[in-house]
Amino acid sequence: MAAVLLAGVAAGTVNTIVGSGTLITFPVLLAVGYSPVLANVSNTVGLTPGSISGAIGYRAELAGQRRRLTILGAFSVLGGLTGAVLLLTLPPGAFRAIVPVLIALSLVLVVLQPRLARRLAAVQGEGGSPGRGRALHAGVYGAGIYGGYFGAAQGVLLIGLLGAFLHEDLQRINAAKNVLAALVNGTAAVAFVVAADVAWAAAGLIAVGSVVGGQLGASIGRRIPAVLLRGLIVVVGIVAIAKILLG
């Protein structure tokens, strides 16, 4: 119980700052005896309150983003539902084969984000273009599918996508990421509660820990300079790829 609770605190903190908190809680649930699918389902249910806590912690950076997040949030909800259905219907491992590729692509986007944002703003203006908007919507939907299915490094994917398509400060992008991740996790959690078995003791411990971690992450994350935060995102993403490839 202590291990699961502490893993929840760590995951909530990491999710709010960068993402990839699942890479902390998921192995712990496996280590204490839960099956992979049950661990994944219970982990998603437990981390949802932490995602909401992190989004609330970043509320100052969310100012002026309501319209954008309403549109992108709809695609996140659809993606989260699609990912949850895939988890409950596809054979284990069918989707995870492309996870390292997705994370690696997101890391490239994170590194190139300042240059891409300046170039897109210069060519198209901050308002963007219909084609650019459609590409972002498709990317957020795809990230939602991934988040609903497994979720590790979902935050890295979202930061990479939002950073490439939006002319915004990285802290505001991180705040938007927290809202979208909360919507994906919440949608998938509802689907799992309705259609799958949940280990409620584990989910409850993770929920309590992740709520605390969400507030810690918001307090720490907004103090990290953009360059350092970008470097931290890359390190976490590389660790995520290594852990997934090594099983």
Describe the structure.
There is one protein chain. The mean pLDDT is 85. This protein has one domain. Helix 4 crosses helix 6 and helix 4 packs parallel to helix 8. By secondary structure, it is mainly alpha-helical. Helices cover 80% and strands 0% of the residues.
Write the layout of secondary structure elements.
Blueprint: H1 2-17, H2 22-31, H3 36-57, H4 66-89, H5 99-124, H6 130-149, H7 154-165, H8 170-195, H9 200-221, H10 226-245
Helix pairs in contact: 1-2, 1-3, 1-9, 2-3, 3-8, 3-9, 4-6, 4-8, 5-7, 5-10, 6-7, 6-8, 7-8
- Biggest β-sheet description: none
Order of helices and strands: HHHHHHHHHH
Low-confidence segments: none
Question: How many helical stretches?
Answer: 10
Q: Specify the structural class.
A: mainly alpha
Number of strands: 0
Shape annotation: globular
Residues in helix, %:
over 70%
**Number of separate structural domains:** 1
* Ends distance: 24 Å
Query: Rounded to an integer, what's the Rg over CA atoms?
Result: 17 Å
Average pLDDT rating: 85
Portion of residues in beta strands equals under 5%
Key attributes of the depicted protein:
globular, mainly alpha, 10 helices
Offer a concise description of the structure.
The chain is mainly alpha-helical.
